[in-house]
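DUF4401 domain-containing protein (Lampropedia cohaerens), 591 aa
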Amino acid sequence: MVAYNWEDLHRLVRLGVAASVLLSVAAATAVQRPHGIGWRVGCLVTALCIGALLALVGQIYQTGADRWQLFATWAATMLPVAALARSRACWALWVVVCSVALHTWQAAHHIAADLWMPPRGADATAMAAVALLCAALWLLVRLWPRAFSTQHPRVLQISLYALALGAGAVAAAQSQRDTLWYVALFSALVAPAWLLAWRARDALALAIAYLAAITVGLVLLVERLPPNWLLAAAGMLLLASSAAVYHVTRVWRLRPHAAAHVTCRAQTDPAPEPSTPWWLSALMAVAAWTSALLCVAAFFILFQRTEPAVATLLGIIAIACGLLMMQSTHAIRGSFIRQIGFACSLSGQLCLCVTVLLQSHPGEELLLAFACIALLCALLGGMFAHRLLCLVTAILLALVWLVLQGAALLPLALCMTLATLVLWLRVPHPAAWAKALQHAMTLCSLLATGLVAIGETPFDSPVTFAVSPQLAAVLHALTALVWIVTAWLLARPYRPSRWLLGLASAVAATLSYAMPALLLAHALALVVFARGQRVWLALTTLAQVGIVALYYYNMHLSLRTRAVSMLLVGGIAVGVAALLARRHRSPEAGA
């Protein structure tokens, strides 16, 4: 009611409502335990309410203030709140508001024809100011960590450190005039940061410093080199990233707490190899995939000067070398070598595919040839990601070939989803290749069900469903059967509950003619939830949200049908999830 009549309310009433909300939140925060979860959340909401009140004042009274003045006032008024909160979220909000104030101030004072789209390099001054602000705040947090965050101040330090170097890198890379000044400013930020990180044996901070420095150097180098020297720039990037990876890896292996842990162990008890963090693996992947680009460029240069037989031999050699390198078990350089092998294998596959394409007439049969190459490379071994990517490529190419041959997508999606459910339900502890096949089939099934939902909407789509009404009825019946059997199998240990669940599933399955893709996605989500696959559960949930959005705009279904279908399917999903959670809490009950 208040939202509906908001525009008709008097301006003093609107200000009173906003001020009362702010005071209520502040009062509720004041009674919380200092620096507890309620205190931190209340301070964050108070800071947001301050910004909303300032925006409302500017809207009502039309003060004529610029946007940067609004954000600057907000930053100034919320600074005491952030200081009292000692929360990472409040300080992050304060940094964001200050950054927006600096950017809007720079845009307001920049002499340009279009302030909304300033020319390239116009944001360099604002980014440099943001870098200095984050660097100053990082130094304060480093000196007095508990004054800024009561929980994990290390996270706040690393975030400000990354923001300072990232903003400085953007300023140096975007600058058109006074480039040397911005590069000097960036160097003044990176050099002491690198020195402090090296003395503290902080591998993550070292990785951030190296990444920022390499990015700025590469951008400046590419802008000033002639086009025929770009391959040399890629080689320099490979050398720089490889050196950075090697140094960061050594620092990570020799960090103080790891060295102390190894020293305290008995001599007869070998220390396990420390796991590589995700950010170090990502830095290794940058260097490895840069070498992959060089390999691809070299292969294409060789294509122009070699016979097809030689190009085929080069592709096979690259695949073999890649598979051998992916078997590396070296403690320090193993991850980097495996990434290089991954890249070499993909380059060899690309070499073979291009050779087949150049020596054959274009046609749909080439898709099967490419799929066979990817499938063969997946069966030969390698990393899990290598197997997964090759299997996904082979399955998608085969799916595209079948669709081009005139096959309807709904039976293909049904068969793929059914095979995926069988793999998850009947192979609880798969081998390496079967595990990769499970994940590849899951991804392809989600893609196929999404295409089914797209093809059934009135949107323009290349997917067609040229099936007879009888065949369509059979397919929808099979979809309903897959849903019922899946729900039944997952609820087997609970005899009193599975009858009720089976009845409710049957009721929901009667609406499979309206939303077959949603039923298939729900069945897949229930199975991956039962197998404890959190990542796939998140992806299937996102896919279901997209499918629901597509069905919402399906004009061929009535609003009642859409609402009842979504309600029933969602209710069944919640019921099965509750049963599975109960099974995990009391495993002896399902025995």
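The two ends are 53 Å apart (CA to CA). Residues 1-107 form one domain. ok done for today
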